[in-house]
Amino acid sequence: MEHLDGNAAAGDFSEIFTLEATSATATCATCGATGPMARAMLYETGIGTVLRCPDCDSVLMRLVHARGEILMEMRGIKMLRWQNAAG
Fold first, then answer.
1. Which residues 6+ apart lie within 8 Å of 32 measured at CB?
2. Domain presence at residue 86
3. Full-model pTM
4. Structural domain tally of the chain?
């Protein structure tokens, strides 16, 4: 099977990264709890933002603004889903 480089996913990525993140449903990689991202517990730290699972308190996501970059680590989210408005 032939492959393309990551640029070929630009269309798919543009669909996701313009959606409202708090409307997404997240599944915690630690405990398996599923719920809206808006339910996650947010903590502001000295270096960024941490979102934790409201059921088990595990870290879902970290956001850091540093040296003109935005860094996002999501290893605590097993899956992130949005409802397809088109059906």
1. 78
2. no
3. 0.80
4. 1
